[in-house]
Structures are given as structure tokens and as C-alpha cells.
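Q: Trace C-alpha cell order:
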Amino acid sequence: MKRIILTSIITAAASSAMAAERAEIIVEVAPGADNIAAQVDFAEPVQDWGSTEVVSVDAGSVEASIKLLRQLDDVISAEPNETVNAPTPPEQPLHLNRVMSVTSSSETVDAMFNDPLFSRQYAWETYNAQNPGASSVSHAVGVSVPYRPLTVAVLDNGFTDTSSFNWAGGYNFATSSNSHSLPIGPDFYAKDINFEGVHGQEVASVIGGAQNDGLGNAGVLGNATFYASRVLGVDPASNTTAVLVNGLKWAIGEPVTNPDTGSAIPPIPEIPDIVNMSLGNDSQTSCPAALQSAIDTAHSKGILVVVAAGNTDGTGTLQLTYPASCNNVLVVGATDQQGAAASFSKSGAAIDLSAAGQDIPVYSSAGGNQVNGTSFSAPLAAGIIGNLWQDIPGFTADELTSLATGAVNPLTSGTNMGTGILDASKLQEDAIASIDPPDFELRHPLEGIVGAQDMLAFLDRGGANYGHKREVRINTSMAGKKAVVFQTDDTQSIASGGTTAIQGASGPRFLVDSWDSAKQYGIQKCSSVSGTGCSANTLVPLDMPGASL
């Protein structure tokens, strides 16, 4: 590759800066690209993550350097390597590790779990006029029947090993020099237990803290698998865009190089269904191109990326910053127990929906706390959506986002907080209503939805031979008519001499006793089970995939 020598230009641009001051730029590079710093004479290499590199330039020449870097054939994007933080909590948390036997401010939460903080989880209450900030989580979790447990990746800091939470694995990407830094590698657990040092663990506990184990709070997803991507340091709880980008790439199964060793970082064992990011930049409203590229890759893989809207600093509403300002993310604002926008929550047109984020019970190695912040609204929304997704895995991330933004309750006060407060029960109901089953479904009796007494009727007197039985399930309104099954010929016509009505009912299901797999069958709506007064002369073939009229 050609080496670009532009010292005179850069020197002129940096004339007002002290020579010792340096600034970092994150460069997204094309596959197979040569080292970027080696192609120019104004940048020094800092980190090489593989698909992204970090270079340093004179602090006064950042803008000029970026313009020049963007002209290189190997460069996809170049931007300042900004700082990313865990949001500053609006108020110090209420520590409950010594007050684990607590009483609820509301008496409507069912005692479904023995977790001592569960009675304070007002979002789990049933939404009504007395509970305007609730999300009906208890009911939704209670009726959930997981078909496929989900995998969740949490990008944060302060992950701790507790008996109430099981991390399947993780990786540390945080590289800043601070009092609790770890080398880039598989050791991602926090070494210091304080509020800042357990932020990620508390976030994770909202999504998937163990249920009914007598410790702390109860998470929404009791059967999910969790992976930690540590992208923030501790004291301060910050790092850079480059670390965030590569921590996200690892979390979604993309290749990443260890900049310290030059070797490939082992891939995440499972591609997650959901990624949660309760973090952000303090001031940058535009989404860095490298971060947007990683988020777009996650979206293309069908991964739902949930992010916190961010907290204000007490000076009023501020604009959303990245990752909340990025595309293809679900942005969650915070509300309080009264259903009002939390005083600390950022607001704006880019917020998709809201969830409880004030006085939220969490648990970590530091004990039980009640905390405030959009950091905890995002994982609550992620858990609620995941609770549905594990039951009906056929939904896509985009479909779930659309369903979630519609399954909401109104805020009692506040504007620009998305469509409303996410409601777990409404989400389930709307999801089921969105599935359009065929009017009639044909099943083998053993596949039907029947009780034990009904199963007895399927038994032949001579034994359990189900070969000549079928269940017909009716999913449509019959409007006073009967669903009649006909044995027919190739004509699929009621008028044909080879067509005979064999069985019928008005629903919701009935058993066909004399099914012959060698014959053809059709179905139609008729006035009587004898096959008279039918809605049409032409039958709809009845087979295992189902039929619609």
C-alpha cells in the first residue's frame, strides 16, 4: 500500500496544540487491510482489533487526520475514539443487603416467589388504576411455557459471581488504566464490590436473576443462558468506542483480534437472541459508523439489541447519545411506580417505549439494592420481550419490536417517552392475536390439545391403535354452522357421487373415528352434520398443514 506523507498539512492543522497532546481515532478497516498507521506518517498505532484499529494523532489535528484517513482505500470509516460510560445513577441506591426481609409498598403482588425483594418489584403487578406503573409481569411469567430458552449477552461492567445468577461465560475487553483493570481475556469478574463495581451484575439480575431461590430479586427469564462482555472499567466506569464496538462484535459472534497478543479471541459459544446495553456516551448524539456497523450486523443475524435511553444530569432533558441514537436498537426510557416519566430519564422521539426504572430491586455480590436509572428499564423490557420470545421463537426481532411498541399502557405524565409503558400480558395477548392460524387444523390425536379424560376416548377397545383417528381443531367462528368432514374423490365436490359426509361438529374440536390415510378428505361449513346446507359446493382439502375457508 502507498504511504501517505502529509506531515506539513497535519503540522499546520495542529499548530495551536501542544506537541505532547495526543487524541485517538477509531478506524474501521476493510478485510485484509494493511496496518493503517503504517500507511500514513501522522498517526501512531494504539490497538489493532482486526476489523477496527485505533491510532493516535496530534490532539489539534483530529479533524484533519480523519479527513485524510477516510481517503485511504482500506478505510471504511474514521471517527474520534470517544469515551463510553455506565450512566451516572440519578441518586445513590438504597442498600438492602442488611434489610432482606422487606414489605411491599403495594399489596397486589402475588407471592409467587420467595425472593425477599420480590414484593417490591412493582412492575410485576397487574396494571390497573391502582398500579399505573405496573407491567403485569407476574401474570405473563406465570402462564409462560418456554419452548426454547433464550441466550442473552450483557455489555457492561461489574459482573460478579453470585449463587443467584449463573454466567455461562464472558470476556473482558475493557482496557483503560484504572484501579481495577483486568487484562483482555476471559477473566471478566469484578474485583472490587461497590455500587459502580456491580452495575452489570445488577442489570443482569433484572433480566435473569434466579427465581424463588430466597435471595435478592427475581429476574424475568428464569431459564435463559447469559454471557458477559465487559466493555467498561471501574473507577471510572468508562472506556472507549473501540472497546464497545469490539465487545459487541464478540457478543454477536463476529471475529475479534486481541490487540495485546495479536491472536484471535475465542468466539462466544452461543449467538445471543438479545443484547442489552445499559451504557452510553455523555455528549455525542450521532452514532459512530463502526458501532452502527456492528449493530447492523447484529440486526442482520436476527438479534434484538436493547439499549437504555440514558439519564440526565439534573439539568433537564438532554438529547439521546449513542448507542441510544443508533438505528436498529430498541430504546427504553424510565418510568416510576405512578406511571409517570422518571425525572431523570432522557426523552425524545427516538425512544421506542418505557419501563419501570425507579426504585428497582436488584441483586449482586454487594447484596440487595433498590436503584434508579434507565439502566434498569432496558433489561426489564428485554426480559419481558424475551419471556414471549422463549414461548414463540418463530417471531423475528423486528416483529417483536413492532409488537412491543404496541403492547403498552399510557404514562400518567410525561412526553416523548415512546409509545407507552410496556405491558407483558398485553404483549402476550397481542402476539397470539397476530398469529393467524388456519380455520381448521388436522392433527393426530396424540398431537391434539386434549385432557386426560379426552384421551381415554381415543383408545380402541382392542388397544391403543390411533392409526384411523384424527382430531380436527376449529379456529374460526362457525356462525351457527357445523364443520363437516367429507370423504371424497379427486373432484373435491360435495355433488360428486364419491363424496360422503362422515363427521362434523361446531367446535372447538372433534374426533374423526374412521380416518383412512389412503382416502382424500375435504371440509366445509354446513347447516348440519349430514352435509346439507353447505356454504359452498367445493370442498377445501383437509390435510396436516391445515385449511382455511
Notes: Residues 12-19, 92-108, 448-464 have pLDDT under 50 and may be disordered. Residues 122 and 412 are 16 Å apart (CA to CA). The longest strand covers residues 22-29. The chain has ten helices and 25 strands.
